[in-house]
Amino acid sequence: MNTLSPYLRVLAGFFAAVCTWLIVVSAIQVDFGQVVTMTVFAAGLWYLALAKPIRDHIARVKARNAAIVARADAANAAFMAGDTAAALAAPPPVYAPPPVRKGVVAAAIVAAGLTVIGIATDISDGFDESEDQSPPSSTQPVPTSAARATTSASPTTTVAPSATITPTTIAPATSVPAAAPVPQSASAPTALMPAVLCMNLQAAQDAIQAAGVFYSRSEDATGKGRMQISDRNWVVVAQSPAPGIAIDEGDAVLSVVKYGESGDCP
Fold it and tell me: Could you give the count of Cα atoms lying within 13 Å of 264 in the half-sphere of its Cβ?
C-alpha cells in the first residue's frame, strides 16, 4: 500500500484540479448550486492529495528543531562539566526525508499536463467557435435593401434624338454604355438553416458551418445570461430561423440549456 499511496495522491490531485476548474466555469455561468457541489468535492480531493505530505513535512521540521535544541542542551551541559570534547562533538544526524520517487514525479508531470490541456481545450471550445468570432472581412454581407435596389434596376440605354432626316442624310443614334451589373452572389443568402434541435451546441455550430455560414450565435434559454464556455455541455432547445430558411452570417440564433436542466431534450 505504501508503494501505491504516492500515485493515488497524484490521481487525487488531478481530479482536484479538474473540480477546481469546474468551480471557475460554474461561477462564470452563475450556477451556484454546482459551485457548492464542486467545492465540496475539490476540498476532499485536495485533502487526500496534500494532507499527508504536509503532515510529514511539519513532523520533519519539528524533529529537526527538537534535535537542534537537544544538541545545544547536551553541549552546554558537557561544557559546564568540563568535557570540552563532548561539547564540541558533531551533532547527531537529523531525520532525513525519504527520497523522491522518479515515477511519482513523472506521474505528477503527466497529470499536470493533462489538466492544462483539458482546460485549454475547454476554453477553446467556448470562445473559438461561438459568438466571440466574427466573419472574415473579405466576405462582408451586402445590406439586403441596398442589394435588392441595385439588382432590381435594369440597365438603361439612352437614345439621343435623331438628326433631321433629309432625302440624302440620316444621323446615327448615339447611346450611353449600360452600367456594369452587380454580382448576384453579393445579395444572395449564403446557406440554408439546418435542423439542429437537440444537438449539443458544438455539433450544431459545426452543422451550420458545414452548410456555409461561419458565424452563428447562442443564448441561454433560461434567461440567466450565462456564457457558453464549454459548448459540448449545452444542448440546443430552440433555433431561429426554422430549418430550410435562407441565412447569412450572424442570422442563426441557438437557444441552449445545460444537459440535465429543465427543458433539456428527452
Answer: 11
